[in-house]
Specification:
single chain, mainly beta, 40% strand
């Protein structure tokens, strides 16, 4: 699967059979066949499993596509509760505002993709990844 950066808060995940756009600001730019998730709940569409977890009036999304589990913390402003953390077990790739974000070590992802451009981390125009190619140790990837 391929992951690319779209905008400040936007990412595109292209799997084998589905394309997923994570972007808080570009909902109106999606095509007619798009399905938009903004609320907590459990969903499954075209082989993509989505779990929306409520957090202080916002929604954290856990997404599983092609065997890889993603988490988008959104604009997380509070510390994650034990209940939220238990819902976020086995996250492979974590989207955060910055690597200073709460919860990174608690969630324990293999790859962290920050929205803010940082000095540290591997810079790529696109990340191509599969479950069997995930790193053993934490890796920070900056998508430009």
């Amino acid at each position: 699967m391929d992951i690319t950066h779209l905008s400040h808060s936007g990412f595109r995940i292209k799997g084998k059979n589905s394309i997923l756009v994570i972007d808080n600001s570009a909902v109106e730019n999606l095509g007619e066949s798009s399905i938009i998730f903004t609320s907590p709940g459990e969903y499954e569409v075209r082989g993509v499993k989505i779990l929306g977890i409520p957090n202080s009036g916002k929604t954290i999304f856990k997404i599983k596509i092609d065997g890889v589990t993603f988490c988008h913390l959104g604009d997380l402003k509070t510390k994650l509760t034990d209940k939220e953390l238990s819902s976020l077990e086995e996250v492979d790739i974590l989207f955060v505002i910055t690597t200073e974000a709460e919860g990174i070590s608690q969630i324990g992802p293999k790859i962290v993709i920050p929205r803010e451009i940082l000095k540290e981390g591997e810079r790529l125009s696109q990340l191509t990844i599969s479950k069997d190619k995930l790193p053993q140790d934490l890796k920070i990837v900056i998508l430009e």
